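Design job #97: recover the sequence.
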């Protein structure tokens, strides 16, 4: 685990309260795997011991990129980081996604949940995996992140919005179910990878369990220490309580217990 002093190279708005922060952190960048997260100390909150956890959107060429939504005190303060500022970043943390897949890789994401799926898509493509389909959902078109970046990787992207402003009108599980029906008809294998809001994650986990396919679900739980010491981030599993920051954030769908 590294505690990097990372220089901010770029920090831009990408619409609808979302920002992209690119950090220079060569050692950390080389060590990160898709689905792992970093714990960021917000410079304006230096007096607070608390960090904020973020998934990694990309780690390449000595850079670590995160996409974040401004929701409260920490993320609002993070808005103030300017290119050239130094940010302390702890990582790599947690267990990520497997970078292999038996059959078609079905990536399902919503909101900032798309971030780790982009990193995974890049890794799958780099390892020669051809069939990667991403299902991205949101309330409206401005909630759909990283669509162009995923397409640039050669990923087949299917969109769904509640208001129909992009893709099909409805839930992200609507185009996913169409694809699952097609794969079943053709007798093809697949695995599911998901990150986003809990109801979406549960819906994807149920589909993995219901079809007997492997499902990899990245859980988002409030964290304090990020390194396994405080037990703030408990997720119920078939093996009992697991710490999201150590045993997760990515769990097998079959292991998760939903409240
Ligand atoms: C493994 C992991 C990966 C994450 N990846 C990303 C990411 O890539 N991009 C991103 O924008 N955010 C991500 N988050 C969520 C992010 O950590 C929180 O939004 C952030 O810590 C909020 O800090 P704050 O001080 O601004 O908000 P606070 O002032 O602490 O809270 C403001 C509001 O946000 C809610 N909130 C706080 N933490 C979380 C959380 N973990 N999940 C959902 N709601 C929360 C609070 O309940 C409250 O309603 C991730 C969280 C985890 C656990
Ligand atoms: S955040 Fe402290 S144990 Fe997970």
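Job complete. Output follows.
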């Amino acid at each position: 685990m590294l505690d990097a002093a990372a220089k901010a190279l770029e920090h831009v708005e990408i619409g609808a309260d979302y920002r992209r922060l690119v950090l220079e952190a060569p050692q950390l960048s080389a060590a990160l795997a898709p689905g792992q997260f970093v714990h960021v100390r917000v410079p304006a909150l230096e007096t607070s011991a608390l960090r904020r956890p973020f998934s990694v959107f990309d780690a390449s060429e000595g850079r670590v990129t995160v996409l974040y939504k401004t929701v409260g005190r920490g993320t609002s303060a993070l808005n103030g980081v300017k290119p050239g500022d130094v940010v302390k970043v702890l990582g790599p943390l947690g267990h990520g996604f497997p970078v292999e897949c038996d059959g078609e890789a079905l990536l399902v994401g919503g909101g900032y949940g798309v971030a780790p799926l982009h990193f995974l898509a890049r890794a799958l493509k780099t390892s020669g995996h051809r069939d990667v389909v991403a299902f991205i959902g949101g309330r409206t078109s401005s909630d759909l992140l990283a669509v162009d970046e995923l397409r640039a990787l050669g990923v087949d992207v299917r969109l769904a919005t509640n208001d129909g402003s992009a893709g099909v009108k409805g839930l992200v599980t609507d185009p996913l179910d169409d694809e699952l029906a097609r794969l079943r008809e053709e007798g093809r294998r697949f695995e599911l990878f998901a990150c986003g809001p809990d109801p979406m994650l549960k819906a994807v986990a149920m589909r993995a369990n219901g079809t007997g396919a492997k499902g990899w679900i990245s859980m988002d739980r409030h964290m304090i220490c990020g390194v396994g010491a405080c037990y703030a981030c408990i997720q119920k599993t078939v093996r009992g309580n697991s710490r999201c920051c150590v045993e997760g954030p990515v769990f097998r769908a079959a292991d998760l217990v939903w409240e």
